Amino acid sequence: MPEMGTSLRAAALLAFVVLSILVSLLVSSVQQYGARGELFSNETVPPADEEQLRGALIYQLQQRRREILPLLLPEDEPSEGTRLAPQLDSSVDYNLWNEITHGSRRAHMDEMGCDSLVDMQAVEVLGSGYTKLVVKVNLAGGQPVALKLVNEQGIDMGKCVEDFKDPQGCRELVSYKLQKEIVLLQRLQHPNVIKLKGHCAGDSRVDGGRGAERGRVTVILEQGNPLQMIQLLQSPWEDRFRVCLDLVRLLHFLSQSPLGSVALLDFQPRQFVTVSGELKLTDLDDASAQETTCRSDADCTLQFPHRNFTLPCSAGGVCEGLNEKRNIYNAYRYFLTYLLPHQAPPGLNHLVDHIMNSTGELRADINQTLEAFEHILLLYKSGLHLDNLPPSVIRDYTLIRGMGTSGNVEYRCWPSYSQQGCVLSVHSAREAAFICNSHTQCNSFTLTGQKTWTGRLLASFSSGFSHLVPGGTSEVYVKKTKAPETSTA
Q1: SS3 28
Q2: Which are the contacts of 3, defined by CB distance < 8 A and separation ≥ 6?
Q3: Whole-number Å distance between alpha carbons of 134 and 142
Q4: Lowest mean pLDDT segment, chosen from 31-40, 76-85, 257-266, 272-281
Q5: Shortest CA distance to 317 belongs to which of 87, 81, 88?
Q6: Is the pLDDT of residue 206 over 60?
Q7: CB within 8 A of 427, min separation 6: which ones?
Q8: What angle do CA 480, 486, 489 make, to 5 degrees?
Q9: How far is CA 292 from CA 79, 435, 471, in A?
Q10: One-letter-per-residue 3-state SS of 29-57
């Protein structure tokens, strides 16, 4: 009885969550994302046809389950490309499976469940597609999280109901993508994968598996900001480099994950978000650890809109590195091409060009690509790429310590950390002086001690200022030919 009471409470909470979201956000406002006019048909089906349709739906449910089972192998047991085998049922992690399908809870103190969603407030729809609805909500304590749930108005749900005439069974079928994503988020934990905070699942054991809550699954994720490529293109090179570096680190992990080599089959910027500036993969339901089998090299062709690549077929009958290479080239064509070369520091251009050529031609594996990125990061953080800057450049400036400036005459530069002025990251005052000398408008710059994610300093450049003010640890550098007659006013 206690277990049944818990299940019923979870079901009630989950129904409340779904209802709250749908009412608060007026799902009709997101029908533009692929809603169907008459989602649940009232058409009556003859008993014989109904039995046949039910059998076909059960078959589809079994197939989805078979897709997830290989992902439930214990992490210390190699999955051999996760190719399905009959004996898998004896070795899968059924604790995780029961948690997902029956809403049972594990003893994780930091894991959220249905209770966490009581009194939550829906804020906005973050995304809506064929299968899923993604909603930003604030929990009772004010913590923002993202919820993923079945898009009741989506194409997948509508097509299933049209085919099988069973809304509850279709919800269960469509929810398998969410269940698969929960498993993948459990198995593929990495700093550049969105953090799974918990989930709320309807218990299919209630009412003989025919309860209205069957198939209702809500995934609770950390809140991220959708990746805005246009905005990113206007950002400083250092921030764009960070996105590329995070992506390569993620692909390195996926190439040797606990599931084997994982390919991202739907590789688009929309599959990613940023959390405090860090890139994170947020959509994993189209990730695959299935290795492509082959008889010859001709079976191992990677096809892209403008390029094809042929990889070797191994003696074991598997295309060598196909998942890894697919990820690398998609990273090249969707991210690196747009974000990496433009406005790169002159001292790093030759290294950036090498990365672009090796990834664009698939000449480097992910280990070599990550090594090249880490080398650039080392040089950029240490300032070793600035060895050719003349040491004397700083001598043209008068240093005023412990002071800031007021009444600044700002000018704009691109790309800048400030839209109102010219704020750039520098390794040292020497690099800032070199930049100031290259700007005809620049007569002074200030170092406040603020730093970027790499530890580099933020320097504010200006054409002039009216007077100095106490500035703690700030340092003001003024061109000697333009230095004011008095240091205070």
Answers
A1: helix
A2: none
A3: 18
A4: 31-40
A5: 81
A6: no
A7: 382, 383, 386, 456, 457
A8: 130
A9: 14, 51, 62
A10: HHHHHCCCCCCCCCCCCCHHHHHHHHHHH
Alpha-carbon gap, residue 194 to 188, rounded angstroms: 10
Tell me: the pLDDT tens digits for 278-307? Answer: 999 999 888 998 889 999 999 999 999 989
Catalytically annotated residues: 266
Q: How far is C-alpha 119 from the chain's CA centre? A: 27
Contacts of 294 (CB under 8 A, 6+ apart): 300, 313, 314, 317, 318, 319
SS3 of residue 107 by DSSP = coil
d(CA 13, CA 9): 6
DSSP state of 335: I
E strand spans, 17-140:
121-128, 132-138
pTM summary value? 0.83
Task: Report the C-alpha gap between 363 and 201 in whole angstroms.
Answer: 45
In 3D, which of 198, 200, 148 has the Cα closest to residue 178?
A: 148
DSSP 194: P
Angle at 430 between CA 425 and CA 432, to 5 degrees: 35
How far apart are the two ends of the chain, measured CA to CA in Å?
Answer: 80
Three-state secondary-structure class, residue 457:
strand
CA-to-CA separations, 332 to 117, 238, 364, in angstroms, rounded: 39, 18, 12
